Amino acid sequence: MLLISLIILFLGATAFVINIQYQDEIHKLIAILSGLIASFILFFLSPIIVKLFLIFIILIIINNIAFVYKS
User: Fold this and answer.
1) Cβ neighbours around 33 below 10 Å, total
2) Phi/psi of residue 46, each to 5°?
3) Could you tell me the sign of the dihedral formed by the alpha carbons of 35, 36, 37, 40, in that order?
4) Alpha-carbon distance 16 to 37, whole Å?
5) pLDDT tens by residue, the chain, 71 residues
6) Which of 33, 41, 31, 32 is nearest to 9 (CA)?
7) Widest pairwise Cα distance in the chain
8) What pTM was estimated for this model as a whole?
9) What are the helix (H) ranges across the chain?
């Protein structure tokens, strides 16, 4: 299970690097989609405590973004 999670994490990180490196739109689109798919799979395979921690972090980030736009 750990090996599968590491492979999916590697795919997501590779997609992120490809997204930064290439200027072609189709490469960026495919990199974004594969990174999102890898992130969703990694999220669903993770234990419940990790999911709660990630949701907590996401909510903090969204709250900070909303606070900046209100100012």
Assistant:
1) 11
2) -80, 155
3) positive
4) 12
5) 667 767 777 777 777 777 777 777 887 777 778 777 877 877 787 788 878 887 888 888 888 877 777 76
6) 41
7) 44
8) 0.55
9) 2-21, 25-45, 48-70
Q: Where are the domains of the chain?
A: 2-70
Give, as one character, the DSSP assignment of residue 60.
H
As a whole number of angstroms, the distance between CA 48 and CA 30 comes to 29
**35-68 in b/e burial notation, b at 16+ Cβ within 10 A?**
beebbeebeeebeeeeeeeeeeeeeeeeeeeeee
Q: Which residue has the tokens 């490469």?
A: 27
Structure tokens at 53: 């921690």
Q: How far apart are CA 62 and CA 52, in angstroms?
A: 15
